[in-house]
Amino acid sequence: ASAFPKMKYRNCLETLYLSKNKFDFHQEYIFLYFNLFINIKRIDTFLISGNFIQNVQKQKSESSRRTRDHSLKTDTPKNYSIRLPSSLEFLNASFIIGHDFGMINSITFKGITRLKIIDFTYTSLADCNYTFNGLQNVVILNVSHFKCGLLKPNLLKSAVNLEQLIMQSSSLSVGLKEDHQGKFLDGLKHLQYIDFSRNAFEDQFRTSTFKSQLDSLQCLILEGNFFNSIPLSLEDLNRLTFLNIRNNKIAYLTTTETDAI
């Protein structure tokens, strides 16, 4: 990583593949030098192992207060920030084994003015009880296999221009149970594609769950759950053209459901 600043033609680099590597302590610093590549468009860190996550800049919560009790300090939610090149368009950071951050309040991405696609599949922390900030320009987000049994409703609130959300096998049936006001997808008015496959859903969705997507949602994938009927009112989704409810527990469709289809 220390050689990066000396690269004569680093400004020409557009794609960087680092997948399936195991980084030692010194090589982990490569992540601090990404911003040297001012024209980079794609970074792929799929299946990287090591403790590089420890090098992510850690910021204490502004609202936290110092205390003499060390145990209380470690329980104070932290704010983390990650700065990436402004030219970056695609980030594949999937299948990265996470580090124990302790309690987290937020993770903020800085500088990503052109980043459109993020793949974090399997790169989950201990829970989803935090907020992603800085995702205003992201269009496609894959956070499948996240541990969202404990879920902060405003996890994705900053992703106001998101068009595709993929959250397969992320324990959403548990995490959304207390979201009575439908805050999780609230404000994401550009969402066209939602994949909630294999989240162990059984009950009907609340009317508030998709309230911000009534005029945008075109594709809804609910495959591999435990529904015994269509779990929402199809008549409310004005642009829906594709509904996948395969591998559920639906024995038949009612006349009302078939009429709505």
Description:
This protein has 261 residues and is mainly β. It has 3 helices and 13 strands. It has a 9-stranded parallel beta sheet with strand order 1-2-5-7-9-10-11-12-13, with no helix packed on it. A 4-stranded mixed beta sheet has the order 3-4-6-8, with no helix packed on it. Helix 2 (172-175) links the parallel strand 10 (164-166) and strand 11. The radius of gyration is 20 Å and the shape is elongated. 28% of the residues are buried.
What's the SSE blueprint?
Blueprint: E1 15-17, E2 42-44, E3 57-60, H1 70-74, E4 78-83, E5 90-92, E6 104-110, E7 117-119, E8 131-133, E9 140-142, E10 164-166, H2 172-175, E11 193-195, E12 219-221, E13 242-244, H3 255-260
Parallel strand pairs: 1-2, 2-5, 4-6, 5-7, 6-8, 7-9, 9-10, 10-11, 11-12, 12-13
Antiparallel strand pairs: 3-4
Structure summary:
Helix content is 6%, strand content 18%. With 261 residues, it is mainly β.
What would the keywords be for this entry?
four-stranded mixed sheet, single chain, mainly beta, 18% strand, 261 residues, nine-stranded parallel sheet, 3 helices
